[in-house]
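Something for you to look into today, if you have time. Could you write out one complete protein record for me, on any chain you like? The space below this message is yours for that.
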Amino acid sequence: MTAMPQKPITVIIAEDDPHNRAFLRSILEQHPDIEVVGEAANGRELVSIAKKIKPQVLFVDIEMPEMDGMTAVKKLLGKNEDLMIIFVTGHSDFAVEAFEVSSFDYILKPFKADRVEKALDKIRSSMKERELDLQKLYTIFKASEKLYVKCGYELHFIESDSVYYIEKERKKTIIHTTKGRYETHETIMDLEKRLNPMDFFRSHKCYLINLKKVERIIPWGDNSYLVKFFNSNNDALISRSKVKMLYELLEMGSE
């Protein structure tokens, strides 16, 4: 398996003091592998934003209006146990309770840039361990009948029979299936090696099609043909040279 470019680690900052919030954001934005995807001024805002955006990391002030940070975190951890929580507070009294709710780190105010960066290093280390675990699973299952696809930090198990076609789109690869589409940074060539060559045909440099799903092939332009699929409004392309190759394969199969 080839190494895949990693997406930035997504972070939400929850802090009722706008100056502290801006200072923390300024520290985080100095790191290209960290992306601040949202801010909240109280616990209710945090719960609402985090449920929509689904970040990987939260920097949370414990004492906030409307709903305190501890209560908000407990609500969110019930939905996502993998969420990394870093509490930022002016009181050490909350440390025991913070670690009881599985906080990842605990930073006392007034915080300094180097202390925040230590927390970021811990996050990166944990993410790397998680990535290695995912790679091990990937290695174990990639020879299975299912198509295993790495999408960011997630591993998706896709029934190969559900795939209509796979398409290269700029730096991404899109897998179109009966249940929707999946985006990955794996190449078409990587995925092709894991699929049955009797069913999947490389119709174009940017397309890999499931022959079982093809309804018809029609001329499209001077050098290409359009591939239509059963029960799908999406189309793929097949080059003129590949059409000729496909006809030859079909003739061989009928002999």
Remarks:
- DSSP finds seven helices and 15 strands in the chain.
